[in-house]
Amino acid sequence: MSTYRLEKLLSPKSIAVVGGSPREKSLGRALLKNLRGANFGGPIHVINNKYPELEGIAAAKSLRDLPIVPDLTVVVVPPAQVPSVVAEAAAIGSAAAVIITAGLGHGPGSLAESCEQIARPHGLRLLGPNCIGVMAPIAKLNATFAAHMPEGGDLAVISQSGAVTAGLIEWAVRRAVGFSALVSIGDQLDIDFGDLLDHFALDRHTRAILLYVEAIKDARKFMSAARAAARSKPVVVVKAGRHGFAAKAAATHTGALAGSDEVYDAAFRRAGMLRVFDLGELFDGAETLGRIPAVTGGRLAILTNGGGVGVLAVDRLIDLGGRPAELAPETRARLDAVLPPTWSKANPVDIVGDADAARYAAALEALLGDPRNDAVLVLNVETALASALETARSVADVAERQRAKSIHPKPILAAWIGAGPEISEVFNRARIANYATETEAVRGFMHLVRHREATTALMATPPSLPQQFVPDVAGARRVVESVLAAGRRWLDPLECAELCAAYAIPIVPTRLARDPQEAEAVAASLFASGSAVAVKIMSRDIIHKSDVGGVRLNLVSTDAVRAAAAEVIAAAAAARPDARIAGVAVQPMIVRPKARELIVGITDDPTFGAIVVFGHGGTAVEVIADKAIALPPLDLGLAHDLIGRTRVARLLRAYRDVPEAKIDEVALVLIKLAQLAADLPEVMELEINPLLADASGVLALDARIAVAAATPKFKGKGHPRFAVRPYPIGWERRFSLADGSRLFARPVRPDDEELVRQFFMKVSPQDLRLRFFAPVKDLGHTFIAKLTQLDYARAMAFVAIDENSGEMVGGVRMHADSNYETAEYAILLRSDWKGKGLGWKLMELILEYARAEGLQRIYGQILRENSVMLQMCKEFGFELADDPEDRDVRIATLALAQPN
């Protein structure tokens, strides 16, 4: 249900607490104390059968006895009683319930399942069970049993662990870091990461989101929400259970499922989230994001009174991928004027051990004025020659003066080594991000840099493919269906070759020989072309041929081939007497001495579904353990990023007498595999090892492919095994207009940026104003990327292309709300294509799509003067109404009848 009724959870007008006792340590009593201590503005009610009052509040016997329906119900009764409390809250119309109680179990027949089944028909949102509760300082809400309540701020926390939530709260109270909300989601019975990411992405009080993750329950929903949130604000995530033993521990806690950490890392990267690896880093991220809105680049200037600590900071900066800033000549001159002759003359700017407050202030002002840095880190090691406290105050004064002069002040970070709490208080009051060590400070700065890079990557236009390919999907599907019909899981080598050929993946030719004599004849034709041959056992029951002695290589005579074929058939029959042996596969030996051996493939993750794997291949693939993972679908940019995250990527470049491999062709193979996984969800595993890559191109030497019925892994529509919804090729359409024009309509792609830009160049300023409600002056990358880079799980845009000219002549788009019930549409035509019936065709297309997606209604905002669009809406059956917030705008709404 996504954001439905979450405002009642995070900003309720009334609350009821069910359960508790007068005992000093009871959960109910602790919750009531916190609710009252937060100065919650609405009524707080107590439901308790045993005690007439708690914390001075008279107790009612049941929720039905209350004079009002509480927005929020907090449940702290024993596990067996929780379903009945949920049923009562649902029946009276309460909007949300926080289930603090643990021990409700998981899965079919559990108390947790009963609660979910009871709540859902009534629209009652459930947080928990097994959680610490919810806190929203801005709303004066503290429905938790945490020890303290932090101040209001603009950081939101979503945590699967109550202990981590409590730890963040205690840290924040000491550091004067404020939060818009902290939500402990526990077992995610209903409200989950995706719901809360959608909420906080649009929350004007939230500037950054922090996540503590043990396991994701609905990967597709999570990815869609995370990608949307990360485009608008920083999302920082720490994932527990990175190693096998820790993952088992997480599974026994609130994380019922924990997928491979490498896959989680790929998912976080794809979503544009900033991953950190422990609570210390998460705290650093909170400190930085809580004080600094953003950085414009990765160049850091370092100001210090100790050369050693400054050099350590530079080392750590370079380790983490940052750049020490160069000093501009005018900055160097300005520093020369205010510093002693012995200052370092470079970055780090060492202003010598006797530096006092005035020297720090003068140097800091010079660095803040230098255009060659993006932020300044101020370090101090206290000495007997100057007061660290006075120096901190001088830095705070400079920061205040800078803020008074600029609406976008340059970020300042501080680390006073070994400083006491009084210095942190100075920086906290001045809203300066401050840390205990230079390492933490540099790491905090790099969080900002990494977020900027991730945001840029999310908005980047992928390069066009070096070549277009049209896979033979029908032929590939015939292969897969024949294997499934035979009740088999693994494809034989001939079928593997046929499937690879359908997707234009070069693979060594393979011929079947049913006996040694046939093998001899096949080999003779290969010898005529000058090639040695390989003989491999052919059995649909034997996957790893070398394990049964089923491979012979570098055979150079027909006698040797005949003998080898007999040997491998005998060896395989001895090792696997149950196996059905069809004969042997005869292949030419491939001699490419400067080729690199790679591994590429598709596998299935229990949480995120289909994933693409790339790495260093060959027989020692497990020993080398050099691989990277990505979530499909892929474009050329994502494929190159996947390759670049491995060590073998460096070997693909030229070195010594070895020319560079055709890296674009390697990337193209990855794209083809991702497309194969999109077209054929029955392909559960695919491994090409080795894939040879050199200056002449790529060639697969061996492939293993397993198939099974495509059981949907995710809820709702879309690909059954993709966490990121792929390009919807099934929505490509061709149609004609009354004047005979032939058009091709298809979903927009990220690489359509130039196509769309040229389209806008031929739309009149007046038509642009009617579409965007204001003059459009900026047609740059950022503006167009927002139109071309869609999450197909929640938005769709079709471009209409004139088949004669290849130019875009119109477009229509819709963007659904986070509940996927209502969508807003918009249509824009090239000005010289108006009046031809194209707008009508595009409206028909978007309505067809919305109905197929199961949306309930679609609406558009239309300027009152746009009479043509208003008339078309009337003819389609839209209801027109005035926009209550803008008298110049009318809202057209259409209830969608669902297709049969």
Topology overview:
Layout: H1 6-10, E1 15-19, H2 27-37, E2 44-47, E3 53-54, E4 57-60, E5 72-76, H3 82-92, E6 96-99, H4 111-119, E7 125-127, E8 133-136, E9 141-144, E10 152-159, H5 162-175, E11 179-184, H6 193-202, E12 208-213, H7 219-232, E13 235-239, H8 244-251, H9 261-271, E14 274-276, H10 279-291, E15 299-304, H11 307-319, E16 323-324, H12 329-338, E17 349-350, H13 357-368, E18 375-381, H14 388-405, E19 412-417, H15 421-429, E20 433-435, H16 438-459, H17 473-485, H18 493-502, E21 511-513, H19 516-528, E22 533-539, E23 551-555, H20 558-575, E24 581-588, E25 596-605, E26 609-616, H21 621-624, E27 627-630, H22 636-644, H23 648-652, H24 663-679, E28 683-694, E29 697-700, E30 703-707, E31 733-736, E32 742-747, H25 753-761, H26 765-772, H27 781-788, E33 795-802, E34 808-816, E35 822-829, H28 838-852, E36 857-863, H29 867-876, E37 879-883, E38 886-895
Parallel strand pairs: 1-2, 1-5, 2-4, 5-6, 6-7, 10-11, 10-12, 12-13, 13-14, 15-16, 15-17, 15-18, 18-19, 19-20, 35-36
Antiparallel strand pairs: 3-4, 8-9, 8-11, 21-24, 22-23, 22-24, 25-26, 25-28, 26-27, 28-29, 28-30, 31-32, 32-33, 33-34, 34-35, 36-38, 37-38
